[in-house]
């Protein structure tokens, strides 16, 4: 009788990786010995109900660490102390100032041991996706404090969601060792592909309904998500947000009154 499941090496590697980085195997959708490789374990789903969806207007999109959170003033976002980058360069959207200038942004860093799927922080309709080819610099602390315009030069995918407060942007930022950025609702758009890398803008008609807490996509290793919120969000919720530093996907972003 031949063993057709994951190899002994894969099972031992996953078990050792989980032990080394204190990953709770009980949260995974499947038993660790059902994943054929560490790569597949990286993008594991969680058991239903492990990350209940918060009741506020917005929730956090990923298990991660919040490294920056501030107003988008003068079309500029903060990368690290002393380093900024331009909203227009980052989004490659000619209408970005109308949507997000004067709004609020948050940077979420996913380390390689985090749950790697990204969920919608809001209820709304997906209207547009922009794929922007670029470099694959690491997005660790050294890079964010030393590489100018890091998030604007790295590969990224912007998912735009129309809400009752205006457009919300979810930006997946690629990095070294990120196998792919994959969107759950449109797998034709993928990051880090072989062949020519060209800018792509896709407008959805009809729009794609999305619910707070539903899966948007995944990284095949750790990376960064940057959230863009419109001025109406900032006016309503600034000073009333749960900003970590470490947060769980689907946990309330907005503090209960």
What is the topology, as strand order, of the major beta sheet?
Answer: 10-6-7-8-12-4-1-13
Query: What sequence of helices (H) and strands (E) makes up the elements?
Result: HHEEEHHEEEHHEEEEEEHE
Helicity range of the residues?
10-25%
Overall pLDDT, averaged? 90
Q: Would you tell me the structural class of the helices and strands?
A: alpha+beta
Percent of residues in beta strands? Answer: 25-35%
Number of helices: 7
Low-confidence stretches: 1-5
User: How far do the termini sit from each other?
Assistant: 61 Å
Overall spatial form: globular
Radius of gyration: 18 Å
Give an account of the 3D structure.
The chain is of the alpha+beta class and 257 residues long. The longest helix has 13 residues, at 8-20. Helix content is 18%, strand content 30%. The chain has 2 domains: 1-50, no CATH class; 53-247, no CATH class. The protein has helices spanning 8-20, 38-42, 87-91, 96-100, 141-146, 150-153, 231-237, and strands spanning 64-71, 76-80, 83-86, 104-109, 117-119, 124-132, 156-163, 166-173, 181-183, 200-210, 215-219, 224-229, 246-247. This is phosphatidylserine decarboxylase. It is an enzyme of class 4 (lyase).
């Amino acid at each position: 009788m031949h063993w057709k499941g994951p190899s002994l090496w894969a099972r031992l590697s996953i078990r050792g990786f989980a032990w080394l980085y204190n990953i709770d195997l009980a949260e995974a959708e499947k038993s660790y010995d059902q994943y054929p490789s560490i790569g597949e374990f990286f993008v594991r789903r969680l058991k239903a109900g492990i990350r209940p969806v918060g009741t506020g207007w917005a929730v956090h999109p990923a298990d991660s660490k919040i490294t920056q959170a501030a107003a988008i003033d003068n079309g500029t976002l903060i990368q690290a102390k002393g380093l900024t980058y331009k909203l227009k360069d980052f989004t490659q959207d000619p209408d970005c100032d109308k949507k997000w200038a004067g709004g609020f942004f948050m940077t979420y860093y996913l380390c390689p041991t985090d749950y790697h799927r990204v969920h919608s922080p809001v209820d709304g309709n997906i209207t547009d996706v922009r794929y922007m080819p670029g470099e694959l610099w690491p997005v660790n602390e050294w890079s964010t404090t030393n590489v100018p315009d890091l998030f604007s030069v790295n590969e990224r995918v912007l998912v735009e969601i129309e809400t009752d407060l205006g457009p919300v942007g979810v930006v997946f930022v690629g990095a070294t060792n990120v196998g792919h950025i994959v969107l759950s609702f449109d797998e034709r758009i993928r990051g880090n592909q072989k062949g020519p890398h060209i800018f792509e803008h896709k407008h959805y008609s009809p729009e794609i309904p999305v619910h707070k807490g539903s899966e948007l996509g995944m990284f095949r290793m750790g990376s960064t998500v940057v959230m863009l919120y419109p001025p109406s969000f900032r006016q309503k919720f600034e000073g009333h947000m749960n900003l970590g530093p470490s947060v769980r996907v689907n946990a309330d972003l907005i503090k209960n009154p």
